[in-house]
Amino acid sequence: MAEKKKSAPVSTGPVKPEDKKKALETALAQIEKNFGKGAIMRLGDDIPVNVEAISTGSLSLDLALGIGGVPRGRIVEIYGPESSGKTTLALH
């Protein structure tokens, strides 16, 4: 019968912000090393692309989409549970 190997005890105390940041930087560096520069990025690091949009006619929907409507020349998928208004939105 095989013997169980004892693992090192894991600290369950609060994690310091410096340790979190160091672990994140290490993980990002490892991913970029394995998969190349640009394989992963932090949200907001890149300059947003200016996309031309077609207004939906609904101000609140345009604001929710983030660019002022649906993007011109792109495929838009509307999904959700049944009876949630997908067809009504598409026919609007």
UniProtKB/TrEMBL annotation:
One of its GO terms (cellular component) is cytosol. Residues 50-92 form the RecA family profile domain. It holds the Pfam family RecA_N. Residues 1-21 are annotated as: Disordered. One of its GO terms (molecular function) is single-stranded DNA binding. Keywords: ATP-binding, DNA recombination, Nucleotide-binding. InterPro entries: DNA_recomb/repair_RecA, P-loop_NTPase, RecA-like_N, RecA_ATP-bd. Transmembrane segments: none annotated. The keyword NAD does not apply. GO terms for biological process: DNA recombination; DNA repair. PANTHER family: MITOCHONDRIAL DNA REPAIR PROTEIN RECA HOMOLOG-RELATED, RECA. Belongs to the RecA family. This is RecA. It comes from human gut metagenome.
